[in-house]
Structures are given as C-alpha cells and as structure tokens.
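Deliverable D4.2, example record:
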Amino acid sequence: MIPLSVGEIASIVGGSVSGDGSVRVTAPAVLDSRKAEQGGLFVAFAGEHVDGHDYAEQAGRAGAVAVLGSHPTPLPTVVVEDTRAALQALAAHVVGRLRDGLTVFGLTGSQGKTSTKDLLAAVLSSTGPTIATFGSLNNELGVPLTMLRAEPSTRFLVLEMGARHVGDIARLTNLVAPDIAVVLNVGRAHLGEFGSRAAIARAKGELVRGLVPGGTAVLNADDPRVVAMRSLTDGPVLTFGRAEHADVRALGLTLDRLGRPTFTLRTADASAPVSLPHSGAHQALNASAAVAACLMAGIPLATAAAALATSSLSRWRMELRELPCGATLLNDSYNANPESTRAALDALAAIEGGRRIAVLGEMLELGEDSASMHRAVGAYAATRADIVVTVGEGAQPIAEGAGRRAVALTDNGAAVDWLRARLAADDVVLVKASRGARLDEVAAALA
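Output generated by the structure prediction step:
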C-alpha cells in the first residue's frame, strides 16, 4: 500500500471524512478486523446479519488506523455510499500510480488457477519483489485487496481472477488491465451458474479482451476453447501444454513414488528439466503455464525451471502428509469439479502404497446434469481407488457410479469415525470436494 492520508483516500473515492483526516494509512487493507496490520485500513461492510463497522475498535487494537465504510466509526473513517465501489476505486488509483515499472499478470481458468498462480509467484519472486493473490481471493473484493498490497518497490503483480457470471472478469480488468493474461482451461466449474461451456468460454475470454494494448495472451494449447481466444487479441500469443504445436511444451513426464512429476520444458530455442515438489501429473501443465508467462516477462527458461523446484502451494491443494497411523493423506479439499477431481484421483493412483481410498464429497454448482456428472466421477473413482468413501447426501450419485467399491456415509463425523477405525499403515487417502462440503474438517481430524 502506498502511504495515503484519510483525507487523500476520501478524495480518491469520492467520500467524506469522519474524524482526523490527517491520519496516514501505510499498510494494506483488510476485511477481517483480526487481520489488520499496524498502520492498515479496515474495510467495513454492513451485512444482513453482521455489521463490520461494529468491529472497527477491534481492528484498531490489531493495528488499523482508519476505516473505509458506509457510516462513521470510532476510528477515522472514509464514509462512502458504496464500500465495494470505493475499495475498487482506491485499488485502481494505487496501481495506476505504480504502473511504471510494474508488470501485471491476470490468470483465470475453470481449475488450476490457484496452483498455477502459486507457481507463477514462486518464479517471479525469485527475480524481483512480487505481490500475488492470497489463497483464492479472486473476486470483486479479493482482487482490489491484492492490488492494494502493491508498493513502489513491487515489480510483479499477480492477480488470480475468478468468475461466476459473464462480465465478472471484464469488471476486474476494468480495475487494472493486465500486461500478460493466462487462460488455463474451460471446464465445468460453476456450470450451473453459467448455463453452458460456451458461456464459460466467453467469461474466461474477457481476460484476453481486457489486456493492455499490445499485451500478451498465454493460452493452453491442449484446450480448443482456450486456443480459440487468440482471435480476441491483436497482441502476441504464446501457447503452453503437451500438444506438439505448443510454444512451451511439457515432455517426458514421469512420476516418483509420491506422484510428483519430473519433465522437460521445451521452447523453440531452449529446454530445461523441471522437478516439482507437488503431487499430480496435472501440475506439469500448471507449471508450463507459469513458465510461459514468465518468459513473456523476460525471465530465462532455466531460471524459471529452477525456481519451480522450491515452490509451495496454497493450503488444501494437493497437500501430502503422513498420518499418525502411518497412512498417507492427500488433502485436496479446498474445492472440486469433475475435471479437478479426476486429476486428484489420478494423483492418488500414482502414489505408492497399500490401499487407495478416495474420500469424496459433493461438487457444487454443476447445474441440471449434476447427478450424471457425479455418477461419472464415481465410475472413474472406482478405476483409481480400492475404496470410494462418499460423504453426504449430495455425493450419493458418486456412490452409485462407484458401485461395489463405494461406502456411502452421512456426514463428516461419520467419515472420520469410519476412517479412524479402518486406516492402516501404507494406505493412501485422498480427500476431495467442493468448499461447501467442508471436507477439510475430515482431513484435519485425521491429521
């Protein structure tokens, strides 16, 4: 965050000042009063059940010196009619002032966004000060909060951009047009919200349309819907993937006993070996996307490949750990859709061990074909796991698809009890579901 007085912030967002307008904000903005930093800005929303303004004093005790909200608080407050619009306006202003010398990356896709963002940030951080989306804060609030963490020294700004409707990403690129846009895939995540894969493709294509003039699109050569997005820009296009025509191509993929990939990344004039510390063959595609984006920022292939070896992922994404009983837990419980669940099941099958147990919950927002997609995932799980444990009523079609390999349980507590009673040393357990199923609770209880 660049230092700004409360009065300056009010002028930028068209608000009024309640309290001392000379107080200076020198640290990032937060929505959670408990996470305020010394000198920071607390952004307060008045919700249906909770009014964030009531937590201003708590934010002050944590270090916040001012509030952005819709009515006065005990702290110096910038009072506005629309807090969200004001937060976005402030973020756009701050990044606009820092634009010289700052390369902005936008990244989207139906799955793999956060892992690819983490890999991209790891490479960029090895060469210069980098600010990247924390976790999956990729919506109309998360993007401006990330933007406000940028400072004059920041060289790279990495913004993960999610969408549930056509137009969502366009609104985000209106805040900041990326120099480099990465589109990973067009899958079935949020299909119930979008209505069709074509609508999802239109939404993801908004990132390419939102590039700065002359900006670069980095596109997945393995996904025809993504490759077609090259028609949305007059600027440079670089492709990645396993396809023969990909500009950045992943070749010679092998997996170690924990399912961690080793492969070669090849461009037209160079190649470099890559070994990732993360399970799953699909991580090779994520890595090739990250490296392609870094190449367009002037980072050499060898430098990028070496940095990937020390990268880390956000929590609950392919987390691998040994349980007290000697079993291995693969915790990929943050979110799920049919494509990401199949990738996680492939990772489960690749890990050496005894029995492979897939603990699967409901995949949300899949629309009218949800039941058939769940059954298909269940059938696939039966080919990759020895036991398919389904959790909750919404996951019942998975059990139907898995047939005799299925164990259908009612809730998370029942799943924990079943697993604790039966897990043995050398078993490998995958935990995977949409965020609403909260299967992270199962993983935490086992650990």
